[in-house]
Amino acid sequence: MAKPTVAVGSLGGTITMTSDTGSGVAPAWGAADLVAQVPGLADVASVSATTLAMLPGASLRYSDIDQALSWARSAVDAGASGAVLVQGTDTLEETSYLLELYWDRPQPLVVTGAMRAPQRAGSDGPANLLAAVATAVDPGARGLGVLVVMNDEIHAASRVCKVDAMAVDAFGSPVFGPLARLVEGSPAWGNHFQRHPPLAGQGDSVADPRVALLTTHLADSGELLTHLVEAEYDGAVIAALGVGHVSSEFANAVSTATERFVVVFASRTGAGSTGWKSYGFAGSEKDLIARGAIPAGWLTPLKARLLLWALVRQRSCRNRIAEEFAARGTLRRS
Ligand code: ASP
Questions:
Q1: pLDDT for 207-242, tens place per residue?
Q2: How do residues 259-293 score in pLDDT, each as one tens digit?
Q3: Considering 5, 14, 16, 50, which one is annotated as catalytic?
């Protein structure tokens, strides 16, 4: 029987990085080089390889992600069972979520990378790429949107975070865990997951809205938020304390900022949801909501920033932004 087809596209990252000089690794391999290094890949799928960019994760731009999105759509529209995008792990939790917001096909778009460069002992790139392709052809992945496959785990793009700077198991989905694990090369789906539909109305857009992410901290007066207002930013996400708290002074800055742009607050803790109605002091989540800020719920600050960016890019009004955050951030079923 003919093997399913999977398109593999590469943007760069450690998985593509080598060094001849000992001066530190940098992107050097294209998609065809990556595919050629994976034992057993041809047994799983018939793979095409496209080099989209050769960049570290830190230098990816929105335009690279737009290009990757168009490439993946064309691949599945031309008959591929799924698409696999290879990139740097540094920004993978962000790019995969941005892709998830726009991915409008039933076939899976799987994002992967590596923590160890190809020339290092125990390099994880080939295993991750093989697992990503196996996921892309698996019927269980259909309809789940954008998935992240690392270290034999499959994560939803809306939940996955980079949780370790160096370890091979650098990715996790805090609180809920991965959706599946690869067992002997095939996904075993352990958790039920229902994705939100992609963002509607992608037509009219602002080129590149300026949406900032600020982490608040002990004794923070909110001065930087005031600077964002003066600099005419288009939106801001605050990585707030606990369930969504800032100092009372910072809360005053939020009142001024919400008159000029949409302010969202998320939890800076790395796991768990914002609250809505638990605390009532000045600077509490209840107080911030009363001042016009929007809670991000379960969305991490990084993901909340991308959702706000995408909505501002579409010129969405505040009500629509609040609705999207309520739908994507609360995980409640009505
Ligand atoms: N450490 C990163 C990686 O794993 C470097 C990058 O994001 O390009 O790929």
A1: 789 999 999 999 999 999 999 999 999 999 999 999
A2: 999 999 999 999 999 999 999 999 999 999 999 99
A3: 14
Determine if ligand 1 sits within 6 Å of the CB of residue 88.
Answer: yes
Q: Alpha-carbon distance 328 to 50, whole Å? A: 32
- Last residue of one domain, picked from the residues 139, 158, 189: 189
Whether residue 244 sits in one domain with residue 185: no
Asked if residue 13 has its Cβ within 6 Å of ligand 1, the reply is yes
Distance CA 299, CA 53 (A): 29
Q: For ligand 1, atom 6, which residue shows the shortest CA distance? A: 88
Token pair recorded at residue 331: 């995980």
Domain around 103: 5-189
Query: Is 61 inside a domain boundary?
Result: yes
Helix (H) or strand (E) segment spanning residue 9: strand 5-12
The model's pTM is 0.97
Known active-site residue 274: no
Q: Report which secondary-structure segment, H or E, holds 154.
A: strand 153-156
